Amino acid sequence: MSEYLDILFISATLGILLSGYPVALTLAGMSVLFAILGWQFGQFDLALFQAIPSRLFGIATNQVLLAIPLFVFMGLVLERSKLADDMLRVAAQIFSGMRGGLTVSVSLVGLLLAASTGIVGASVATLGLLALPSLLRNGVSPSLAGGTVAAAGTLGQIIPPSIVLIVLGDQMSNAWQEAQTRSGNFAPDSVSVADLFAGAIVPGILLVSFFAVYQIFASKPTSKAQVNPDEHLNTRQLLSSFVPPLVLIIAVLGSILAGLATPSEAAGVGAVGALFLARNRLDLTQLKSVLENSVHLISMIFLIIIGASLFSLVFRGLGGDETIARLLADLPGGIYGALFIVMLAIFLLGFILDFLEITFIVVPLVAPVLLTMSFPDGSAMSPVWLGVLIALNLQTSFLTPPFGLSLFYLRSVAADKISTADLYSGVVPFVLLQLLTLLCVIVFPQLATIVPDWLYGG
Known about the structure:
single chain
């Protein structure tokens, strides 16, 4: 049994997670338990635990992870300030004259919310409360309305500056460094969060375009928003609804991509900017609620990060990284077979685990192995391309019935407006469109690398 402790470790941890036990405590507790078992069987050196303080210090001082609390706060402030309400109302008026205009406007607002908040749960809940009643009232079928809202809210997974891309960028950077070290390159070029942000831009726009095309053709020819005749769109409404969020997005994302600010610095600017935009929309009670929710969410994220760090340490100490490397190397199809299995595993795990668990448990185990493998032409796998594929894959699993988390978020705020059957049938086309986008990025890697190469010279 001692030879299979690493496999038992993963299996037991997933089993406990499925039971609903807190993720951070599961990761830490199972790590300690299997470390002791490994020590008893002579498979684990307890001296490795001496690395824990330095790992915790590294997490606390990581400049990339420092951006997470600020982006969480920024997203919650914008969500509570009801800016999405104004954007949705104005967007509906802009697109009211075209077929499927209201559903397209929801996707547009979802895009802007994703680029502003980066928090999937907040975006889905906001659009569920604001957009779903309007869609149903204007004759959009329940299935199309539910699918539109769930898909638009989930754009926060792939549209920068999402928290998913921040934590994934940090893990891909570590994986790239490890892969290059294994290959004998001890001074590799770094991979940053900005690289992943840039790589996600074109796939994100492509995905939203697919959504819009489908919504236009899936809508009834007579499906146009019934705009209140007493409401006339004017330049002042347009500017006040869309310009402030756009300025904030450009200031945050643009400064990161241009290299003018680190993610943490840009997140600080974003947090201050969000407070400025919400200055007349939030009272002290609401602001206190935002701060409390921010602390709870940030604490959960960093507890998971700490637990995942301990999990990674013990798994490697049990020889798990070598087991993963052998398994992927022995798969038929070489690098393509290994990539397919990893993508399938992430897709399936997305039904039962949050993106944080997958990013901090799975990515450190499989990414270094994939990045050391070569394509048939001898070229190496791009870490930016792999990171974008994982992000798209995680987003797809968020929507896939019956366990997609976005579906649970929407059901929690709209249970009386749409049936489960309509919601599940409505998201299927959007899941297929996300898989189509994933396939496009696999077949045409330039979709993920063209912007980083243009910005940073390859």
